[in-house]
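Reviewer 2 asked us to include a model.

Predict the structure of this chain.
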Amino acid sequence: MVRTLRTVSLAAGFIFLLSGIVQAKALMPDFVDLAKQNKPTVVNVSTAKVIRPQAPTRRSPSNPFGGDPFEDFFDHFFNGGPQRPYTSRSLGSGFIISDDGYILTNYHVVAGADEVKVKLSDSREFKATVKGWDDKLDLALVKISTKDHLPVAKLGDSDKTEVGEWVIAIGNPFGLGQTVTAGIVSAKERVIGSGPYDDYIQTDASINPGNSGGPLINTSGEVIGINTAIVAGGQGIGFAIPINMAKNIISQLKEKGKVTRGWLGVVIQSITPDLAKSFGLKGEAGALVSEVVKGSPAEKAGLKNGDIITEFNGRKIREMNELPRLVAVTPVGGKVKVTIIRKGKILHKTVTIETMKEGAGEGRSSVAKEKLGITVAPITPEMAAKMGIKETSGVVVTEVVPGSVAEEAGIAAGDVIKEVDGAEITTVAEFEKTLSSYKKGSVMRLLLQRGDAALYVALSIDQ
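Predicted model (structure tokens):
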């Protein structure tokens, strides 16, 4: 009797285990079908660019009577003499978005190329024309000519993408030809400091050099992102541009070759806990206006310094970086309702959006750029990983303007600013506020962290 019960128990356990395995398989996407369905829409993009080196600058002769013949001898043999032009080649990926040959890829894949070629999954190769690009989003539209109707990638809705859902990436990593990798959506709305409209989908599907421009695809076989960036030295951290951002500009790239964006005309910054307290806010949501550009739509609508923008065109502003993205995709000439908090009161303004001029836009406070010639950012985990920073406090230099006082002082991108004249710096807002108190001609001392080394630099304010 005991033996019989044990046998039944073991059998039941085996059936339960088998049922669990079947259920687990049912939950897994059919990667084979997804690959078969989408691989024909993915292409290899190869480029060639002719590099014409500039002639080496002749050093000033040390001999006032006509130069040194030995110097000419060594210049010719050790500097290689006249340098010849050479061809630089690169590889990337892309995917077909219309059956007549329009292909979406990254701008950095085709930027500056003298020749672009596209190779289809069936090994046919075509010369391609770059029809338009948007360097701010790092997107480009290329076109090939063929009489055949090409397979087209199905574009999804990236706004509906959820963290944790399965995705596959298809591309040509290291020029190996079509490669399929799988993973999940690790995070959304990532800001990695690559541009003014950062809004990346993060994934742990393997992305490597050569994957740039390839599609990130969900389990419905829809493209939800364009694989664009990786973290140097990182594993399982890749970034894709949401496909909805691309869909907003594709028609403009086809028709005009460039993108026209909306412009509000404010300089904004994040709301820190201390700033929230000083403004009497209950939370840190919104974008704090630190400057209103003269003659801008914002000034015409009555926005002022110190206003906190909490809603734009019906969309709540949870954090500062959302505002530039929303303004940019707003049609020029459109009237938009903007909700602000001013001195504790909620006000509503109507703004008529204008065309963004070259070099204009909405962004972080520019005091650091005006006075020192640098752009700084908070040290987020993504920024630390991207730039190889070990520090967690201070602000990181993301850009140094050539010829600026910062460059002359030896400051470089990746340096972490820890102190200004002995005062500790913990946030961008704090750094900007400190800089604002320095007048032209003042001398400032910065404590920098560069890798494992700490160093002081002194520089004179020129603005």
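The first helix runs from residue 2 to 27. Residues 265 and 296 are 5 Å apart (CA to CA). We have added this to the supplementary material.
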